[in-house]
Amino acid sequence: EGLLEKDQRDNRNIGAHGASDILGRVPGGGPVTLLTHCNTGTLATAGYGTALGVVRALHQRGSLSRVFCTETRPYNQGSRLSALELRHDGVPVTIIADSAAAAAMRERGVQAVVVGADRVAANGDVANKIGTFQLAVAARHMGIPFYVAAPSSTCDPTLASGRLIPIEERPGTELTQLGGVLLADPDVDVWNPAFDVTPHELITGGIITEWGVFAPSEVCRAL
C-alpha cells in the first residue's frame, strides 16, 4: 500500500511538472495538442500514469486541446489501452496509425510529443516501445519538443549509454498474423524488436521526473 501511494504521488508530480514545462513553451499558455506512444497510464503504472499523467494534468487544467495516440503496432497498446483510458476520463483523443505520426505533427498542429521510458542510461539515452526513436527524429525535424516522462527509478547509472540496453525481440507471428488470420507469407523473415533506443540529443524537451524536468545528460546525475 505504501508503494501504491508513492507511485501515484510520483506520477501526479510528473504530470504537474510536465504540464507546466509544456505550457511554458507555448505562446499564450495553451491549450496544447500532444502526441503520445504506447501505454503509460493507469494500466501501466499503479495509477494516473507518466506520459499520460502529463496528458491528464493538462486536461485537468483545461489546457489540453487534443492528444493523438499512435496505435503502437504490432501489439496496439496505444489503441487498445491508452485511447480506452483517455476516453474513460473524457479526454479528447484521436487514434492514428504509427505511420501517420509525422503527418499528424505537420497537419494537425501537434505542439509536443510525450512518451514514457523503460530505462534511461547515464548519458540520457532512453529505451522505450519500438517506434519511439522515429517519433523523436520526426519531432526534431519539425521543431516540436520531444519529452520523456519517467520516474527517477527508471534511471540506470550503471549503463553508460543506450547501446548497452538489451533489446527484446518478439515472435514474428505478431506481424504476420492477427487472431490466427495470416497477414503475410507465413515463411517470410521477420524482425520484430519490442523496444528501441532514442539518443539523448533527440530528447529536446527534456526528461520529466517526479523531481522536475531535466536535460537528458543531467537526469541520472541529478537524481
From TrEMBL:
Biased composition (Basic and acidic residues): 1-12
GO CC annotation terms, alphabetical: cytoplasm; nucleus
Annotated organism of origin: Rhipidura dahli
Cytoplasm among keywords: yes
Annotated Gene3D superfamilies: Translation initiation factor eif-2b, domain 2
Gene Ontology molecular function, alphabetical: S-methyl-5-thioribose-1-phosphate isomerase activity
Predominant localisation class: cytoplasm
UniProt-listed NCBIfam families: eIF-2B_rel (TIGR00524), PRK05720.1 (NF004326), salvage_mtnA (TIGR00512)
Disordered as annotated region, ranges: 1-20
Keywords: Amino-acid biosynthesis, Cytoplasm, Isomerase, Methionine biosynthesis, Nucleus
Any matching Pfam family: IF-2B
Recorded superkingdom: Eukaryota
Protein known as: MTNA isomerase
GO terms of biological process kind: L-methionine salvage from methylthioadenosine
Subcellular location: Cytoplasm; Nucleus
Similarity comment: family membership: Belongs to the eIF-2B alpha/beta/delta subunits family.
